[in-house]
Automatic annotation (TrEMBL):
Arginine methyltransferase involved in the assembly or stability of mitochondrial NADH:ubiquinone oxidoreductase complex (complex I). Acts by mediating symmetric dimethylation of 'Arg-118' of NDUFS2 after it assembles into the complex I, stabilizing the early intermediate complex. Signal peptide: none annotated. The keyword Mitochondrion applies. It catalyses: L-arginyl-[protein] + 2 S-adenosyl-L-methionine = N(omega),N(omega)'-dimethyl-L-arginyl-[protein] + 2 S-adenosyl-L-homocysteine + 2 H(+). Residues 411-420 have a biased composition (Basic and acidic residues). The keyword Signal does not apply. Belongs to the NDUFAF7 family. This is Protein arginine methyltransferase NDUFAF7. Residues 411-436 are annotated as: Disordered. Keywords: Methyltransferase, Mitochondrion, Transferase, Transit peptide. InterPro entries: NDUFAF7, NDUFAF7_sf, SAM-dependent_MTases_sf.
């Protein structure tokens, strides 16, 4: 669970501007394997040929380069990887998210079918916990046609997910199919894998993005005396195998398009890909119904430099040995809200500890503690609760944010339907859940 203190640093990182002057790269004498520097060699050739690239382009190469990208090659989630996520810490996390979707399904009149669509499902732990809840509530869902749709670019991770969710009972689909793989969950629910959100069939859907948006490529901008300049990555002319941050000599297309006129900060990170995905989700929810739940660490338009790397549960220089470390940046929820463009209602962000408390984590933990037979399990339960809820661990740096159809939150017009006396149920997690 070491990732918590890292991806969610307790002390602020140094300002980005201070890092522009220091070249960083492979340390002399480091015994990195040759493939560890393959992305660096590829980037060096590219930079010499075309000049400096945006931070977004650098992240794309380092994380998803088809041959040597971090996610395509390794994707280190879990104890043995580079970071640990909430579902890896406690089953309760995924169970409560499963209950959130069920409560939304009930609140919208129990539609006859729903798709659970997870973006970047990691090892499949979260989906597995949610499916266990669906299975436990199978009598409630008996008349509902449930299917699971996973959006995953990593071949390695999709194998791990298939093994966890289906016991390995999957089949590859022909190249012209929208889903590249499909199988049946251990409880009999069909599961499909896609490379892009656009390949997922339309229809009433619940979307889940847990620690997904933080890994999407960001553009970085610095305010200067001559106006906004984009932060770029370039080769250090004095040390050929090292990379460094530089400022664009003039404004770039991204500077013109992504900086809001009312911006007050001196350093800004913008993730256009996140904006595009939120727009797609908002359009789908507006048209077909459903909801999207986003859980990530982030801020509401207040932070500046949050770009950082993780390797072996330690902070890792973002420009050192690209392809061997996880690169991440805090999610700007104010930007996500803006990009929904009013097509849906938005709720949050609220702190993870508030959301889980509202979802009844304390009650669930009491039951688990009462049922735990041995001291070790008891201790582990208390430890995982502390990791999820402690404000200095995950409790305050992770946030929940939701997209819902406007009618889900609108009060019925009494004049048109005087007989409709039932108030709209509150959205679980974002307000106190009243347990009857």
């Amino acid at each position: 669970a070491a990732r918590v203190s890292l991806r969610c640093p307790f002390s602020p990182l140094p300002a980005a501007a201070a890092r522009f002057v220091s070249g960083v790269g492979r340390e002399p004498g480091s015994d990195e394997s040759s493939d560890a520097t393959a992305v660096l060699r590829h980037l060096a050739r590219k930079l010499r040929a075309t000049g400096a690239v945006t931070v977004a382009e650098y992240m794309r190469e380092a994380l998803t380069n088809p041959g040597q990208g971090y996610y395509t090659r390794r994707g280190g989630v879990g104890e043995s990887g580079d970071f640990i996520t909430s579902p890896e810490i406690s089953q309760v996390f995924g169970e409560l998210i499963g209950i959130w979707y069920i409560s939304e399904w009930i609140a919208t009149g129990k539609p006859k079918a729903f798709q659970l669509v997870e973006l970047g499902p990691g090892r499949g732990t979260l989906a597995d916990d949610i499916l266990r809840v669906f299975n436990q509530l199978s009598s409630l869902l008996s008349k509902c046609d449930v299917s699971v749709h996973l959006v995953e670019v990593s071949p390695k991770l999709s194998e791990i997910q298939a093994s966890m969710l289906t016991g390995g009972k999957v089949q590859s689909n022909p190249e012209d199919s929208s889903a590249y793989m499909e199988g049946i969950s251990k409880s009999g629910i069909p599961i499909f894998w896609y490379r892009d959100i656009q390949d997922v069939p339309l229809g009433y859907s619940f979307y889940l993005a847990h620690e997904f948006f933080d890994a999407l490529p960001i553009h970085k901008f610095q305010r200067t005396e001559r106006g906004w300049r984009e932060v770029l990555v370039d080769i250090d002319p004095d040390v050929p195998d090292q990379l460094r941050f530089v400022l664009s000599p003039s404004s770039t297309p991204a500077t013109e398009n992504f900086i809001q006129p009312e911006e007050r900060r001196d350093h800004v990170e913008v993730c256009p890909e996140a904006g595009v995905i939120i727009q797609r989700l908002a359009c789908r929810i507006e048209k077909d119904g459903g909801a999207a739940l986003v859980a990530d660490y982030g801020h509401d338009g207040t932070k500046t430099d949050t770009f950082r790397g993780f390797r072996n549960h330690k902070l890792h220089d973002v420009l050192k040995n690209p392809g061997t470390a996880d690169l991440t940046a805090d999610v700007d929820f104010s930007y996500l809200r803006k990009m929904a463009q009013g097509r849906t209602a938005t709720l949050g962000p609220i702190k993870q500890r508030e959301f889980l408390k509202n979802m009844g984590i304390d009650l669930r933990m009491q039951v688990l503690l009462q049922n735990s037979r041995d001291t070790a399990t008891h201790k582990q339960l208390l430890h995982s609760y502390d990791m999820l809820m402690n404000p200095e661990k995950m409790g305050d740096c992770f946030n929940f944010f939701a997209l819902l159809p406007h009618h889900r939150l609108a009060h019925p017009d009494k004049k048109q339907k005087p007989e409709s006396k039932s108030p709209i149920p509150p959205v679980a997690g974002f307000g106190e859940l009243l347990l009857k």
